Here is the input.
Amino acid sequence: MNGLKSFLIIANEIKDEGLQVSKEIEKKLLEKGATVRLVAGLSTEVIRASLDGVEAVIVMGGDGTMLRVSHALVGTDVPVIGVNLGVVGFMTEVVVSKIDKMIDRLISGKYVLEERMMLTGSVEINSTSYKHEALNDVVLARENSLRLVTVEINVNDKYFDTIEADGIIVSTPTGSTSYNLSAGGPIVQPDARLLVMTPISPYSLSSRSVVFGANDKITLKLIEKRKDADNVGLVSFDGTNNHSMMPDDTVTITSSPNTFTMIKLEESSVYEILKKKIGN
Here is the structure.
């Protein structure tokens, strides 16, 4: 790969108190002759306004910070690398002790690019449409109720199943190690192209995760099973852009034409990372 010379550092001020690590990386990059901009905070408007001429983005934070940045970068092809200032860090592969190695490899071109698929979700609520992108997952779950939600699932406009559960997750391969993993869903190679649908605590012993192709379309429709029950749902995209849903409201999920480009320095597989992060 070509060596990189122009960087945008996006710092999560909560994770990097006083921007100490971010400023250290900025200083080291400048010493190498690179051009650097440093942005504190996760404002989409500020991030997009700072992208002109940038060859790569360095994100300082955790996986949540990476997700926020992925939303800000939708429609761009600027590659991103994360420095882990969080806890687990499946997406932020660089630890603080390795920032010198990261800088050397970025500038010398010793890295690879990995395209991650994203999702597009179209929400229909009372004849009003909302559209959002997600890198990890789209989740339809119960809202402010101890009752399960009942969801009718259609795939490619054909009836598939009806599930009573705490909710349903539709995740990308990137998101397979997130909420999907906690709900018992499968782990998927992150650069694959497919959709994983996993029920959250389903009221059925036969409800399992299902893997669909990247060209499939999944529609989740909230339905009213009992007249005396609240069936209020909440749909979210990577945990943000939340919308309350009532019976007959729908969210339709497809693979997005946009992708998220990650810079990878190590050749470790997702399975090696899993063992390191959460295994024994």
